[in-house]
Amino acid sequence: MLKQILPAIRATIVLAVLIGLIFPVVITVITQFVFPKQANGSLIRNKEGQVIGSELIGQKFTKSKYFQPRPSAAGSGYVGEFSAGTNLGPTSSKLINGKLDDPTTKDIDESFVGIKQLAQIYANENLLSKSEKPPVDAVTYSGSGLDPHISETNALFQARRIGKVRNLPLKTITTLIRTHTEDRQFGIFGEPRVNVLKLNLALEELSNERKN
C-alpha cells in the first residue's frame, strides 16, 4: 500500500510547488518586465496620475459633451462581475421593441430599452437626418457588456453633437477621432475602432487648450 501512496504524495507535492508556486512566480516576473502595462490591467491615468479606468473595460458617459459608449447589459452597465450580453435572440420582441417600466411589478427586468428606442434616442441626440441610420454598435448591446470601443462611424456621428455642445469646429473633432482610431487587430480581424475613454480624455485636453 505504502509503495503506491508515497509516490503519489511526492508527485502531488512536487506538482503543487511547480504549478502552484514556481510557474506563477516566473510568469509574473516575466510579464512585469516584458508587458508591464498589460500585466497590471492596461490602466489609464489622468495628468495627476490618478487611475480613471482601463483600456479593456468600458464605462458610462451620459453627459452630452462626451462621446458615449456602446449600450451595456452588464448589471447597471459595464459592471465586471455581471459581464454578459442580453441573451436575447435576433427575433426577440423585447430586444427589438424594449419593455418599459411596469409599476405593478418589482421585477428589475421589466425595464429594458430595445433597439428601436435606442435608435430613436441616438438619432435625436446626434442630430441625424431621416436618411441617416444609426450604426449597429450604437443600438445593439455589447456581447460582454464591457466593450471599451465604438466604431469609427459611431464616433463620427456623435461628432456633431460634441461640436455643438463644446462649441468646437466639426473638422477639429473629426480629426481627433481619426487620430485615435485603432486599426483592425493584426490588420485583418474586426473593424477600425475608437477607445471611448481615451477619446474623451483627448477631447477634454483639446477643449482646455482652446480655452487657454
Distance between the termini: 82 Å
The SS-based structural class is mainly alpha
- The number of domains is 2
Low-confidence stretches: 105-109
| DSSP, total strands | 5
Largest sheet: 3 strands, antiparallel
Topology pattern, helix = H, strand = E: HHEEHHHEHHEEH
| Strand order across the largest sheet | 3-5-4
- Global geometry: extended
Rg computed from alpha carbons, rounded to a whole number of angstroms: 23 Å
Number of helices: 8
Helix content: 40-55%
- Estimate the strand proportion: 5-15%
Would you tell me the overall average pLDDT?
86
Structure description:
The chain is mainly α. Helices cover 46% and strands 7% of the residues. It is built from eight helices and five strands. The protein has helices at 2-34, 36-39, 93-97, 115-125, 136-139, 152-166, 170-179, 196-211; strands at 43-45, 51-54, 149-151, 181-182, 193-195. α6 (152-166) runs antiparallel to α7 (170-179). The longest helix is centred in the N-terminal third of the chain and has 33 residues, at 2-34. The termini are far apart.
Q: Secondary structure elements and their pairing?
A:
Elements (H helix, E strand, L loop, with lengths): L1 H33 L1 H4 L3 E3 L5 E4 L38 H5 L17 H11 L10 H4 L9 E3 H15 L3 H10 L1 E2 L10 E3 H16 L1
Helix pairs in contact: 6-7
Brief overview:
This protein is mainly alpha-helical and 212 residues long.
For this entry, give a set of tags.
212 residues, mainly alpha, two-stranded antiparallel ribbon, 46% helix
